[in-house]
Amino acid sequence: MVNYLIRRLCLMVPTVLGITFMVFMLLALAPGGIGAGLAVSGGQMSDTSKAAQMQAYLEDRYGLNDPVVVQYLRWLGRISPVKFGERDLRTPIGDRVSAPREIVEPPMGWAFPVPPKPEVVFTPIVAASGGADQASEQIVEFKKLQREAEGARRAYIGSVRFFKDTLADYVREKGAPWTSRLEPKGGAEPDKFRDLEFGDPAKDANPKAAALKEAAADMHLKWAKAEETRQRALIAFRAKPYPESGIPIIPGVVSLDTPDLGVAFSKNRPVWDLIATALPVTLLINAIAFPISYLVAIPTGILASVRRGGWFDVGSGLAFLSLYSIPTVLAGVFAIGFLANKQYLGLFPVSGLHASGAESYTFLPYFDDAGTWHEGWLVDTLWHIALPILCLVYTSFAVLSKQTRAAMLENFNADYVRTAKAKGVSRKDVVMRHVFRNSLLPLITMFVGIFPAMLAGSVVIERIFTIPGMGSLILEAIDLRDREIILANTFMIACVNLLALLLADILYAVADPRVSYE
Amino acid sequence: MNNRFGIKDFVTILLLVVVLIAVLLSMVQKTRMELALEATRSKLGEIEQQSLQLQRIVEKGFAERPTVVVQPTGNAAGSSGGANAGASGAAVANDAWARPGVKIERWPMPTPASDPSKMPGFAVGGEFVELFEAQPAKLVPFISGDVYYTRVLERVCEPLATFDPKTLKLKGQLADAWQVDPDGLWVRAHINPRARFSDGSPVTSEDVRWTYVDYVLNPLIEAERTRSTMDNLKEVKVIDDLTVEFIFKEPLFTNAINALGLAILPKAYYARFEPTQVNQGTGLMMGSGPFRFERLPTGPDDLDSQWTPGQDVVLVRNEAYWAEKPSLAGMRFKSIKDDLGRLVAYRNGEGSMMLPTSPQFNSVLKEVPKEGEPRFEEVNYALKWVNMRCGYTFIAWQCGPRAGKESTPFADKRVRRAMTHLLDREKMIRDIWDGIGIVSKGPMNPESPASDPATKPLAFDPEKAKALLAEAGWKDRNGDGVLENENGDPFEFEYTYATGGEIAERLARFAKDSFAKAGIVMTTRPVDWSRYQEILKLRDFDAITLAWGNNAPESDPRQIWHSESTKEGGDNFIQWRSADGDALIEKGRRTMDEAERMQVWRELEALIAEEQPYTFVRVAPWLRFVKREFGNVNTYRTGLEPQEFFKTTSATAVPAPSGG
Q1: How far apart are CA B377 and CA B364, in angstroms?
Q2: Contact B308/A40, CB-based, under 8 Å?
């Protein structure tokens, strides 16, 4: 058994990697690519947003320009608890600070020689001896350097963009056949013009030659500045203004750290924060909905199998199957339109989880001195989630009760049941102790499916009733192609799913002594 | 057999667990209540502090600023008179702050465009609940970007200047005076000495400088969206405590609005947080506006108390508001994503204002009420009007080569005009948008002075269209009902639209039918919205449908209409090149005089109407339902001004709606 468990757990690692890789690639291959939703976030475009600048910024910020595999590996590096290379620092507020990122060299070095990398000699403030005051001075200096480096980097990225635009203009002036090498969108990829000869701008007849040279010079200047400020920031970073994050295994090479789910593109918040606010909502609703569906469906299934062909069997089957065939969307709309609408019944609230001002309610309901009813936080919440839960459970009865019924019927015909009946075991004991226990296997299979479903939330119901749960979160993320949220979610659900399947296998062995993994 | 785990045991355990969870939750709730109590206490303390500060200002103020008349703020009937006194006080202020020789524009204390206290049924207090159609992801100035954030920001923060709701001209908000360089290279603004942030601290020139230089332009703050509109800003200089000067690289007409239109943030508050905390914040919004967040973190240790998505956004009246305080005690923004759910919630009384869909707007007004119940309009305002924030829907024609390859038939102006003549846009609005909307005639908002009432949209005229097409060489040469050019190529084009919307589908079908009648074959290409950006960037379409939003009376047309913007990064994705257009755009951008500039924009509008690079389809008016228990609900050219609303207590006094 232990061997089996270890083997299964080891197999999970490649499975999870495979799943995330697939999802990552699907996202990358989707039309528009990763982050396509960013530029037009929320389906809104406005003429004041300088789309190109924004794009260059986002590409640099999230590394969207790198090959997809590199991006995937980077994501894997973040999610992995085992880290390689330089350790991050951690600020007192728990933020991770990574070393300043590398800067790509200016393009077209063969035509416009790139000046040598600036050598930076710089002694940062170090707080080793100085105590609290100097520590804060060191942090202030580090922050200043960080900001300078980021500003210079941005300026450099802008200048590269400008250089490429100018190059495209230059090529356009040159005319065919050069123009055919331009990108379809009109930009120029410097690598495609390796054989282009640039003369002395004074002699070059091309009217854009001087502008191109100027753009290159400006780019080199900005690169030198960006590189210099980056190195300063790096030196200051290595002086460790904050404590290091994680536990070293081999100092400087391998360390252990908490997995980092990243920051959501579209919301600019840590993915973990988003999940931490959405998950409890979904869990609450599912934690109520699943027991209800089990407590209704399984007894019904048992009873239906005992009275096979009777009015209860037929009636419950008919009722559950009719419910099963009502689409949730329609049910939700009807629920809002009739049950929540004050023009009709108006029994339930329309949306959300709490009434306005529920934060200051008491927990339990009470009557005040004047005899007025105060519903309190508990009742208010239950009242709010009543409709979503109703929509969530009504479809689940059919499958569960039919499964139970079928499994029970199969066992009713078995020899041991006849034997039990023959030896005079009471009917109740035959049904509950013998048949039901032996019918558990298919139910276990269905039962473990709950765990991933608990986390996933229901997209349709959460949308109709405006519930800020996991379903809403993932739907929005898919709309905006927010890679970080989608990946984190997939990762989480994949892990839970695999663990649930393992749990199912263990439960089989517990429920059925014939099953063994030795 | 008896030691088996039976149903009874299961039920017992279940009950135990439920009881445990209930106990746990009630403990959590108790803590919550205590926190709420704590918050109330601290708010009380804050108010005490503020009243103390105010008292001190009143006591000391006269000595320090003899020219400023301090008036009691509040909602007493005479308060607008007090504001006028303040204005005349400011007028005698010395002008040492100003650059000599340049005209100073002065502004009185900001007052409501319509005084609520003079309305029948006026009362103070009450909460106004606005229903949002989606959940804003975050409410942090300049880091968020959606419309919901803007609606909250406009209540909480104030810029130096705003647009006058009636005239759409810039008027002073935080600034009581400013000078604009006649050559357009600088703007110098003087802050109203009475302006206070909601924590009672004065608004100073350092706050203004900090907001621009250390917040929006700070590369560590993710305000890229706003930052990219500021690339013409060279420097922000603090002249004295209340005077600030903006210096620009190029003389553009947008300089004044860029300098004066950004909400000013309190440096002392935001500087408490790390850049990452601001970037990842969800509800860090503080300013000098008439409302403030009910719960706002006091510092980095208190970040958990900020608003997070999923909760209602709750604003309360800023009791320390420096100008005339609003009558409402607070505002609440509630998100309900489902269209039907939103309407039901609104009618159930869970909301005071909502944005209906076009079919909802019509069907509710047609509804026959049950016996004894009032009609919808008797208890609600159903508002429909066009204002400066209305955008327009259009079909864009590819005037240049598609994706850098072959050119489309739409390179010819006559063809483009013919396409517009073929579309019966009145009927489209009737059939597709349930009759809600007006036919659009050009890129300028119809409410804006940049739009010339004399310019009319092209008429629906299939005959004229046929003539124009024939003139351009498109005739049915082989009698198959499809137009051909001289080479015998049939007139065929591809129409790109975004999937997922019923409106877009109907629009595509309507266009297809209309063009088919004239012998033009239109194929459709539905694509996901996330691909739009790429398609536009590659200029890879024959015709595409899209809508431009609007947020101000005039915007810089360069990004969309100048031939320079046909390059990558520009939004002239139709590659429309016009030397006249370029000249007009360049001229307009450098014309500082407003009246003169408007004339240029009108000429540009006429030119675009003549050239028809887009077929302008529809201007979408604003639709709103507002409960009639709220008074002073006016439809302005800027939209709505909820800080002017009041909640009436008398059941009979239902003020008449205005505008519409």
Answers
A1: 9
A2: no
CA–CA distance, A458 with B76 (Å, rounded to integer): 52
The torsion defined by the Cα of B602, A51, B282 and A385, in degrees rounded to 10, comes to 90
Determine the Cα–Cα distance for residues A91 and B136; give it in Å rounded to an integer: 29
**Chain B residues with CB inside 8 Å of A270's CB?**
280
Cβ separation of B348 and A468 shorter than 8 Å? no
Test B539 with A468 for CB contact under 8 angstroms: no
Q: How far is A309 from chain B (nearest CA, A)?
A: 26
Q: Give every CB contact of residue B298 below 8 A, 6+ residues apart in sequence.
A: B42
Q: What is the 3-state secondary structure (H, E, C) of B211-263?
A: HHHHHHCCCCCCCHHHHHHHCCEEEEEEEECCEEEEEECCCCCHHHHHHHCCE
| DSSP states of B507-547 | HHHHHHHHHHHTT-EEEEEEE-HHHHHHHHHHT--SEEEEE
Residue of A nearest to B556 (CA): A48
Alpha carbon of B363: minimum distance to chain A alpha carbons (Å)? 15
User: In this complex, which of A42, A54, A91 lies closest to B228 when CB atoms are compared?
Assistant: A54
CB-CB under 8 Å, B229 with A50: yes
CB contact under 8 A, B533 and A268: no
Q: Which of A31, A58, A263 sits opposite B528 (nearest CB)?
A: A31
Q: Does B318 touch chain A (CB under 8 A)?
A: no
* Residue type at position B611: E
| A471 three-state secondary structure | helix
Q: Where in chain A is the domain with CATH 1.10.3720.10?
A: 273-511
Determine contact: B231 vs chain A, CB below 8 A: yes
**Do residue A184 and residue B348 have CB atoms under 8 angstroms apart?**
no
In order along its 518 residues, chain A shows pLDDT tens digits of 788 889 888 999 899 999 999 988 888 887 665 555 555 543 344 433 355 566 666 677 777 777 888 888 888 888 888 888 778 888 777 778 888 888 888 888 878 888 888 888 877 777 665 555 666 788 888 888 888 888 888 888 888 888 887 888 888 777 777 777 776 655 677 777 877 777 666 677 777 888 888 888 999 999 999 999 999 998 888 888 888 887 888 877 788 888 888 888 777 788 988 999 889 889 888 888 888 988 999 999 999 998 888 999 999 999 999 999 999 889 988 988 888 888 888 888 888 888 777 777 777 777 777 777 777 778 888 888 899 999 988 888 998 899 899 988 988 888 888 898 899 888 888 888 888 888 888 888 888 887 887 777 788 888 888 888 898 888 888 877 788 888 899 888 888 889 988 888 888 887 777 777 77
Give the domain A273-511 fold.
MetI-like fold (1.10.3720)
Of A40, A186, A341, nearest to B567 by CB-CB distance is A186
Look at the block and give the residue holding tokens 């001075």.
A137
In this complex, which of A43, A332, A468 lies closest to B135 when CB atoms are compared? A468
Could you say which residues from 418 to 447 on chain B have a Cβ atom under 8 Å away from some Cβ of chain A?
none
Tokens of A34: 């990763």
The distance between the two most distant Cα atoms of chain A, rounded to a whole number of Å, is: 112
Please state, in angstroms and as integers, the Cα–Cα distance from residue A115 to each residue in A190, A219, A512, B69, following that order. Answer: 18, 11, 75, 63
B559-567: long-range pairs with CB below 8 Å, 24+: B559/A47, B559/A48, B559/A50, B560/A47, B560/B443, B561/B443, B561/B585, B561/B604, B561/B608, B561/B613, B562/B586, B566/A186, B566/B400, B567/A165, B567/A168, B567/A186
How does DSSP classify residue B137?
S
Ordered by where they begin, the domains of chain B are 281-387+622-647 (3.40.190.10), 392-619 (3.10.105.10)
Q: A324: Cβ–Cβ under 8 A, 6 or more apart, which residues?
A: A395, A397, A398, A399
Touching check for B345 and chain A: CB below 8 Å? yes
